Amino acid sequence: MPLAVELIAVGTELLLGQLVDTNTAYVAEHVAAAGIDVYATHAVGDNEARIARTIAEALQRSDGVITTGGLGPTVDDLTKEAAAAALGLETELHEPSLKQMQDFFAMIGREMRGNNRKQAYVPRGSFVLENPRGTAPGFIAFNAAGKFVACMPGVPREMKPMLGDILIPYLRERYNLTDSIHTRVLHTVNIGESELDHRIADLFRSSENPKIAVLAHEQLCDVKIMAKAASSEKADAMIAPLEAQIRERLDGFIFGCDSESLESAVQTLLQNAERTVAVAESCTGGRIASALTAVPGSSKDFLGGIVAYDNAVKVAELAVNESTLAQHGAVSEEAVREMATGVRKRFRAPLGIATTGIAGPDGGTDEKPVGLVWFGIDDGEKIIARSFRFRGDRAAIQRRASIFCLGLTWNSLKFGEKTERP
Ligand code: ATP
Ligand code: MG
């Protein structure tokens, strides 16, 4: 029998928009990976009656509830009292937690207040979730019907190890959960979400376990393959045939899988080919250089870059012809070609990359609208020049253009001539 839970994030700040609830996403992801179904998530303010009611309602639908926040020593920390009320339990002193707290305060040389003592109380019969990184212990407690409430602190660095090291293993053992979700993520670049969907939609519909999900962000699209299985070997065997089919359908667009990033994929290709790269950036303002240097070991493949924003800098530093700029403008195929060649020669690099475009919000015309960006890659034998019109505000255009450029670079390193295809 699968175990179904609901998650509750406690804290008035969450309801006022002052704090972004990252705990729920974290708990949801890890609980789901452990093969536990999440039926709903909630956020509640620091109000005992409302917390208790939300817990009680959730327990009518689900096997258990997991809460974060409101376990501290202050008057607005009410989760424990609410959980006890919802479960119909008194609280009792947990001696080891009190002892641990006393030792902790002795060690830091501070007096322990009465309100800290409150933290050592847990609902009767709880299994206590130790908190080596803070004072508030978590706990899991059960009602007469065997449904549970597990409460953890709100501070992420205390909550995360408590969840991963104690609570999830405890739940898996107690509820005899053998399956977990194993995920393979295939990363694609520069293929639109609808085109991607079109290519794999039938696989989507026909596959239940493993399940497929598509996540689009900016120019990148991830295809997630999730298998529920008792071991990673079994999951791998389930994922492999589907992965092979997807790879065939998306040939040429998948640059990596799981934790691999686009910039690290570019780096791998550069280093395998023993090539280095130099970049000339106008509208991307150094973002491509920044991305490439974010990868450890980039000194082996990244030579340097020039942010050539002003036309005078394009001319002086990259040897772009003034007449080219006068005739075609800075945002043009001609200019980007000269920029790529200019930076390649200037740095004596095998590969020169360039961007020039209109990030907006001003400066667009009918002919050259905001979002139009030209890209150039000069490998010493040929120059590839491409343009693309990006949507979004200035920041989005800059981000998307940077990713697009890295994608184009990856493509040209991987497939050479084939790069001209859209
Ligand atoms: P403490 O002992 O620190 O009081 P607590 O369990 O009472 O811990 P809260 O008081 O609810 O936790 O939250 C403490 C801090 O933890 C918050 O100020 C916030 O920085 C962080 N936090 C709480 N809940 C969340 C959440 N849902 N997502 C992200 N961060 C959170
Ligand atoms: Mg608190």
Bound molecules: adenosine-5'-triphosphate, magnesium ion
Q: What's the gyration radius in Å?
A: 28 Å
Biggest sheet strand line-up: 2-1-3-8-7-6
Count the DSSP helices: 15
Uncertain stretches of 5 or more adjacent residues:
418-422
Average pLDDT over all residues = 94
Q: Compute the number of strand runs.
A: 17
- Structural class by sheet pairing and helices: alpha/beta
Describe this entry's structure for a reader.
By secondary structure, this protein is α/β, with parallel strands linked by helices. The protein is built from 15 helices and 17 strands. The chain has helices at residues 12-15, 22-33, 48-61, 79-87, 95-108, 114-117, 156-174, 193-206, 232-249, 262-272, 287-293, 311-318, 322-328, 333-346, 394-415, and strands at residues 4-10, 37-44, 64-68, 91-93, 121-123, 127-129, 138-142, 148-152, 180-189, 211-217, 220-229, 254-257, 277-281, 302-307, 351-357, 372-378, 383-389. A 6-stranded mixed sheet has the order 2-1-3-8-7-6, sandwiched between helices. A 5-stranded mixed sheet has the order 14-13-15-16-17, with helices on both faces. Strands 10-11-9-12 form a 4-stranded antiparallel sheet. Strand 10 (211-217) and strand 11 form a beta hairpin. The protein is elongated. The two termini are 49 Å apart. The structure holds adenosine-5'-triphosphate and magnesium ion (MG). Adenosine-5'-triphosphate (ATP) is lined by residues 9-11, 14, 19, 21-23, 68-72, 77, 136, 153-156.
